[in-house]
Structures are given as C-alpha cells and as structure tokens.
Amino acid sequence: MRKNLMVNHGFPMSVNALDDLKAVPEALIDSWYLKTEFEADGKQLGFTWHHMVQPYDNEIKVSVESLFMDATDDIWLNNKILSSVNEENGIATDHMYCFSSWGDFSGDMNHMSLDLKIGENEIHMNFIPNGEILYNGGTGLINFGNTGSYQYSFPNMKMEGTFILQGHEYKVNNAYAWFDRQYGIAQTHTEENSFGPGNSSWLWIGLSSLQNGRGAVSLWDVYLPTQRHAFATFLLQDGVMKNASADITYDDIWKSERSGHSYPNIINIRIPAEDFDVKLTSLATGPDAEFVHEVKLLSGCQCLYHISGTYKGKKIDSAVDVEMIGDVCGEI
Q: Which domain holds residue 237?
C-alpha cells in the first residue's frame, strides 16, 4: 500500500482522549474530575468530585474530594479522603475506574457513572458525552513553568440521576455536567514541580453550553512564583478551538481567618478577542465554601457563582462553579 493511502489522523494532539481515560503510568499527578450546576425542586444545586493519585510524604497516595452545593440554602459540604493506595482506595490501570470508601466512578467515551455515599449525602448519576472534546490550549498540553499540564474535557455531558443532600432526595433530569481529565508530567527530574499547590495558586472556571447546548470555555488565572497567566480556551460549536488572553479583575475580596488566604466575592472577566464580557458574584454568604487542609497551601475555596454578561452578543445568566486553589488574591 502506498504511504499516501494511509489514514490521515490530522493534527497530532498531545493527549489521546480515548487511551488517556485510564491511568497514565508516567504521570506525576493523575486526576479525574466532575462538576455540575443544576436546578431541582426550585433550588440551585451542584456538586464536584475529584479523584487524584499523587506523591505525598514520599508515598503515592489517593486524594478524593467532594463538594455538595445548595446555593439557595447556602449549604457547602466539603469532604476529603487522603489514603495510601489499597483495596479500598485506588484506580484501575487498564480502564477508567476510580474507587474509594465513598463509592466509584467508571465509564468510557460513550457513558460514565458516579455513585457516592457520604453519610446522608449521596450522588447516583449517569453521564452521556455528546462527542465534544475541549483540549486545553488547543492540543491538550499547557506548560506551566517546568511542568507539562495535560488536560482535556467533555464539557457538555447529559446528566440524569439522583442527588441526595442532607437526606433530601432530588431527581435530576435534563442537566449537564463537565468531565475533566488531567495529568501532570515534570519536564525535568532535577527541578521542583512549579505547577501545583504550594508552588502556585490558581482560579479555574469551566463554562458549558455557550451556544444552544454546545461549545464551552475553559478559563485559567494561574500564579506561578514569578509569573501570571490569565487565558481561556474556547471550544466553538463547529469544533474549532481558540486560545485568548483574559483580563480578570477581582473585587469585594475577603480574607479567611482559618487559612489566611484571600478570595473574591466578585470576578470580572473580559476577553475582547472573543467578545466575552461577564461578571461573577459569589452565591456563598459565609466562609463555609472554603476547604482548609492540614497543609495550608493545599487549601482553597470552591462554590457556585452567579454569572451574567454576554458572549458574542448573546446573554449569559446562570450559575457556574468556581475553583480557587491557594491564596488567589494574596500578596506576592
């Protein structure tokens, strides 16, 4: 067969969306993440789940975090597991399967499921990806200092199932969720990882359904020891991806008495290149949205914000989860 009759795979991406669903053996940090915002029974609800394998105290450990959110009643329930890899907490190596004492997450490109039980709080959800894939940076690789951050997302997964918060059961239909697959590989073995809690701080926002249930934007504001990187990767309806610098400012900043970190109640984001102009206002009225760990530098704040503004002239008016790790609004 002539070589020019070979199948054309197009532009060479830095990640393989199918193969990289399972664990990546050479990864320094390997993580699977879900987040969603939805309404049920007249309440603005949401949750996040994050399962990660990483080195900790000279040992490879499993870190699992969950956040149950009810913005209507100002409820923010953070939970965390930090465990050695064992029969109860870990990951499979030959397919995507994450398990812990809370439950498990599994699936493939066509279907995923999450089942968790943490006391009187539970999540039992099924997810159907719609075929859209957002590759951060356009290829799935962004270099932060000496660390390569590999990341891609299924930003508009159809979601249905049951959400139980403090014993109250909510049926969820016609909702959407964001799945994020991320892993980090240090570019050298002689330098300390520059992109990670303690060496950096960051804000991340994933906004789904930009136009008619399709399209998305992944937005970062990353603070390395000597640099700031504020930017976004847009996934358009036709599958085209665009990177653009972001102008992000913070207002109504509050300082935590528990961690000493500072976080904003108001976030203003302008991305002129994509005609994107929004304001985010925190729906949390107290400090409960902050999660504080024994290692203070691993602490952060995560909750729902109300987002309003425009994208290419179209009105945006919804709730969105905002993730902040480290002292995002602190001093240099």
A: 20-325
